[in-house]
User: Fold these one by one.
Assistant:
Number 1:
Amino acid sequence: MKQVTIYSDGACSGNPGPGGWGTILIYGELEKELSGYEGDTTNNRMELLGAIYGLEALNQPCEVKLYSDSAYLCNAINQNWLYNWQRNGFIKKDKKPVENVDLWKRIIAMMEKHRVTFIKVKGHADNAYNNRCDALARGAIAEYRKSLQKG
């Protein structure tokens, strides 16, 4: 399997509000940046979408190290919350429905295709790739706002 590194991040201006995501795929010496936005969303959705779009960009099964500053994403995987949610019909221990089920199902599909290790990094610190993903996400929000001004 090819070994790929993905960095991803999400941002929201207001929560909910306009949001953006950014991701960087690294394979050997090659790097590819992706970003996008949604008009009315949450920070958690953007964090998940950054990871999803990075994984969905891979056209064949890969071994992936995915770095994110999202405790929501990394803890859900690494502490088996996602597995428990899925087993319980996406109902949490407190009997409330899991939020963002549509995105968690996409992550599950990508985890079935790829071997993914989720690694939590400190946000807004000294990780150049994480900082770049944050800039991509914030740039996507700015792009969204410009598109509104154009009508």
Number 2:
Amino acid sequence: MQNKVITPAVFSFLKKLEKNNNRDWFTGNKKEFKSLETEMKSFFNDLGEEVKIHDEVERVKVFRIYRDVRFSKNKTPYKINFSSSLSRAGAKLRGGYYTHVQPNNASFIAAGFWQPNKEDLFRIRKELELDASEFREVIRNKKFKSVWGELVGDEVKTAPKGFDKAHENIDLIKKKQFIFTRNFTDKEVLAPGFLKEVSNSFKAIRPYFDLMSDVLTTNLNGESLLD
């Protein structure tokens, strides 16, 4: 397949939108927005097809530019980015991919478990309580870290209810999110190879996803929950 590229016009429009984040300006520039939105949807769909070469992707979701301001202190009506998520397919595959395109070197990709439900979160924590050696081995791998760096995400202050705050793996157990991110400059995003670079980065997260999928589809005795 011929990889799509992101054009400079995308960043140019988003920069103007940041300075004119109001409905009147947006309405007057709606035609340009719709053209760029089509371009970005095509890029995100192409990315989904590229990732399908090395993973099972169930759905490509392109997020709308309209902000939900009901519960936000920031009342500007529009996002200043284009973004998309890829959901892995089926109950046996867990985790997801996220791509965020924003000017001024604010673009990034992410992969992992952003808001795991309470059952999944408890299962992950119990696994880490039992033995975190394989988990640490995967995330400390030099090749893995060269792409994704360190595990990030929100965490509780001391320990989740029912867990020992002095446990040797409490640094992992207290996390509420289990995600990795990688940042990109504007120059990197506009480069011809950006789509391929993102896809390759997502491919590099597979050892982590494979481990977590195994954890989340078995009980603590290693017995499958999918039967």
